[in-house]
Automatic annotation (TrEMBL):
Transmembrane segments: none
Sorted UniProt keywords: Glycosyltransferase, Transferase
Leading EC class: transferase
Gene Ontology terms, MF aspect: UDP-glucosyltransferase activity
Pfam family, one: UDPGT
Organism encoding this protein: Panicum hallii var. hallii
Biased composition regions of type Low complexity, renumbered to the chain: 23-40
Protein name: Glycosyltransferase
EC number: 2.4.1.-
Region (Disordered), start-end ranges: 23-48
Length: 547
C-alpha cells in the first residue's frame, strides 16, 4: 500500500467511477468504467489485436518524465518487433506524448496499444492538469506518484476485460504499487531501469554494506564496497533512490520502492552486456534475479529510419528546430567537428552559469549545437547575451531554444563530442553514436553515470563538479567557469594522444552496441528470450529464480 496515508485505491474507486479510454489509431474508441463493465464498448484495439494470441503480452507502466518514458516506449516497441503484444498504460498527458509513436508502430504492423487512464487529481491532492506541462514541478511529484498508484484498480479491470490476457507487467521502478497489480493478475512483474548496471550495483552495494555508517559529511568520499575495483563516491552523489529528502514521506516511499524492487521477478535494463559484463553479472547476483539487458533501445528508431522528422519524433516532443534544417546545418560542417551540448529534459543552468557556458563554448573555437531548455524563461539580460553570442558565432554555433532532436544530432557524422549532464539515456546514446563526452553531472544517478563514462569506459572528460545541485549548502551561481568549459571541450575535441584514445574507445563501444542489437547479439537475444519466456503457458515466472 502507498505510504503516508495515500488513500486506498479500492475505496477511491467505489467513490468515483473513472472513465477509461482506449485509444487507437485505426479503431473506434471504447470507454469503460473503472470496475471493468463496458459502458460503450466499440471495437477497441484489444478486439482486433492478437485475438487468441499465443504471443507474450507485456503491460508497460512507464513514468512520464522523458528519461523514463522514452526508453520504456522504445523497449515496448522492440519487444513488439519480436512478436510480442505490448500495452502501454498511461494517464492522458503521457499518452498524448506517446500516441504518434505508437500509431506509427501500429501502422507498420506492430501489436502495440495505448490505454489511457485519467488521473484523479483531487483525491491525490494535485492541481487539475498538474501533469500537462513540460515536467511535473518537484513539489508535486509526491502527489503525482499517489495519483498513479490510484490507477491500479482501473488498469486491472481493463486488462481483465480486454484480451489477450497479460503475461507480464513491466513497470518503472518508481511504481511500487505494480507489485499488487501483477499479483492480482497472477503474472510476473519485471522492473524497468534506464540506468547502467554499474550504477545500480554501486547504489545497491553502498546500501547493503552500510557504506555510509559513521560518515557524517555528505561530501566525504567512501570506497564503493564489493566491486573488485576502487571507485569513490560521496553520499551526496549517490544518496539512493528517493533518499536524503528531509521529508518523512519520502523515506517511507524509498523503503516501499526498495521492497518492490527486491520482490520483482526480474529486471530489464537499457544497457548492453558487452559494455559492462562484470556489473551485469554482479547486479544479477546481488539481487538474486535475472537481468535482461536490451539496450541501447534507441537503436529501434535508427534501424528503421534515416528520415530526419522520424528520428526527431523519437524524443516524443516537438522539436524546437525543424529537423531538416538542423540536419542541413550539420551537413555543412566537417565530420567530427561539432560538439553537442545538452543537460537533458529536467536540468536547467542558472542564468550566470548559462553565460559562462556560452563564453566557454565560444572560446573553444569548435562548432556547437547547444540545446537550451526553457531559454525564453531567462531574464532579459541572459536572453540579450544569447542573442549577441548567436550573432558572434553565426555559422559556427546553433542554439536550440527548447527541445532538440537529440538522436538525429548525435547520429550525424559532423558531431564529434557531447557535453552532457550524464543522464543515462544521453550517456548511452553517446556510446551508441561512438562519441566521447564532457561529463557535467547535476544530480540523481548522473554522478555514477559520469564514473561509468570516465573511469569504466574511458570515453569522458569531467568538468570536475563534485556536489549535486540539490546538496549545495549555499547554491552556487557559477559551478563551472568558462575556462573549464573551454578546456574540457578542447580536450575532448582535440587531436592529442588522449583525445584519440577516447575516440578509439568510443568507436569500439559503438561497434559493440550495434552488434548487441543485431541478430546474434546479446540484447537481441535477450529480447527474444523475454518474448519466449513470457508467452502464455510458458514458465516466465521461473526466470525469477535464475541468475
Ligand atoms: N532528449 C531529446 N531532446 C532534448 C533533450 C532530451 O530528445 O532536447 C531526450 C534524450 O535523447 C534522452 C532523454 O530525452 O533520450 C533524456 O534522458 P536522460 O536520461 O539523458 O536525461 P534526463 O532528461 O532524464 O535528465
Amino acid at each position: 500500500m502507498m505510504p503516508c496515508a495515500a488513500p486506498r485505491s479500492q475505496q477511491h474507486n467505489r467513490a468515483r467511477k473513472q472513465q477509461l479510454i482506449v485509444s487507437s489509431a485505426s479503431t473506434t474508441t471504447a470507454t469503460m468504467t473503472s470496475q471493468g463493465q463496458s459502458a460503450t464498448l466499440g471495437r477497441g484495439d484489444a478486439e482486433n489485436d492478437a485475438g487468441g494470441s499465443k504471443a507474450a503480452h507485456f503491460v508497460f507502466v512507464p513514468l512520464r518524465e522523458q528519461g523514463h518514458l522514452i526508453p520504456a516506449v522504445d523497449t515496448a516497441l522492440l519487444l513488439a518487433t519480436h512478436g510480442a503484444v505490448c500495452t502501454i498504460v498511461a494517464p492522458p498527458s503521457t499518452a498524448a506524448l506517446v500516441r504518434p509513436t505508437v500509431d506509427s508502430a501500429r501502422r507498420s504492423g506492430l501489436q502495440v496499444r495505448l490505454a489511457e487512464f485519467p488521473l484523479d487529481y483531487a483525491t491525490a491532492g494535485l492541481p487539475e492538469g498538474a501533469d500537462d506541462g513540460d515536467s511535473i514541478p518537484p513539489m508535486q511529484m509526491w502527489n503525482y506518484y499517489r495519483a498513479m498508484a490510484l490507477l491500479r484498480a482501473p488498469i486491472e479491470s481493463y486488462l481483465r476485460a480486454h484480451a489477450p490476457y497479460p503475461t507480464c507487467v513491466v513497470s518503472d521502478f518508481v511504481h511500487p504499487w505494480t507489485t499488487e497489480l501483477a499479483a492480482n493478475l497472477g503474472v510476473p512483474r519485471l522492473t524497468f531501469f534506464s540506468m547502467c548496471t554499474f550504477g545500480l550495483l554501486c547504489q545497491h552495494n553502498l546500501e547493503r554494506f552500510h557504506a555510509w555508517d559513521g560518515v557524517e559529511d555528505p561530501n566525504e568520499p567512501v570506497v564503493v564496497p564489493g566491486l573488485g575495483r576502487r571507485f569513490e563516491v560521496t553520499r551526496a552523489q549517490a544518496p539512493g533512490f528517493f533518499r536524503g529528502i528531509p521529508i518523512p514521506c519520502w523515506e517511507e516511499f524509498a523503503d516501499y520502492v526498495e521492497r518492490a524492487r527486491a520482490e520483482a521477478d526480474g529486471v530489464i535494463v537499457n544497457t548492453f552486456q558487452e559494455m559492462e559484463p562484470e556489473y551485469v553479472a554482479g547486479y544479477a547476483a546481488a539481487r538474486k534475479m535475472k537481468v535482461w539487458t536490451v539496450g541501447p533501445v534507441s537503436t529501434y528508431h535508427q534501424r528503421r529510419t534515416t528520415l530526419a522528422s522520424t528520428l526527431a519524433s523519437r524524443g516524443l516532443r516537438t522539436s524546437a528546430i525543424d529537423p531538416e534544417e538542423c540536419r542541413r546545418w550539420l551537413d555543412g560542417r566537417a565530420p567530427g567537428s561539432v560538439v553537442y551540448v545538452s543537460f537533458g529534459s529536467i536540468s536547467q543552468a542558472d542564468p550566470k552559469q548559462v553565460v559562462e557556458l556560452g563564453l566557454g563554448l565560444e572560446a573553444s573555437g569548435h562548432p556547437f549545437v547547444w540545446m537550451l531548455r526553457n531559454a525564453d524563461g531567462y531574464h532579459e539580460a541572459v536572453r540579450g547575451f544569447l542573442r549577441e553570442l548567436e550573432a558572434r558565432v553565426a555559422g559556427r554555433g546553433l542554439l536550440v531554444r527548447g527541445w532538440a532532436p537529440q538522436l538525429l544530432v548525435l547520429s550525424h557524422d559532423a558531431v564529434g563530442g557531447f557535453v552532457t549532464h550524464c543522464g543515462w539515456n544521453s550517456t548511452l546514446e553517446a556510446v551508441a553514436a561512438g562519441l566521447p563526452v564532457v561529463t557535467w553531472p547535476h544530480f540523481t544517478d548522473q554522478f555514477l553515470n559520469e564514473k561509468m563514462a570516465v573511469e569504466v569506459l574511458g570515453i569522458g572528460v569531467s568538468v570536475g563538479v563534485t556536489e549535486p545541485l540539490t546538496y549545495q549548502a549555499v547554491a552556487k551561481e557559477i559551478v563551472v567557469g568558462r575556462g573549464v568549459v573551454e578546456a574540457a571541450v578542447r580536450s575532448v575535441m582535440g587531436d592529442g594522444e588522449e583525445a584519440e584514445g577516447r575516440r578509439r574507445r568510443a568507436r569500439a563501444l559503438a561497434a559493440m552496441a550495434r552488434a548487441a542489437a543485431q541478430p546474434g547479439g546479446s540484447s537481441h537475444a535477450n529480447l527474444l528470450d523475454l518474448v519466449e519466456r513470457f508467452q502464455p503457458g510458458a514458465a516466465g515466472g521461473a526466470a525469477a529464480s535464475e541468475v
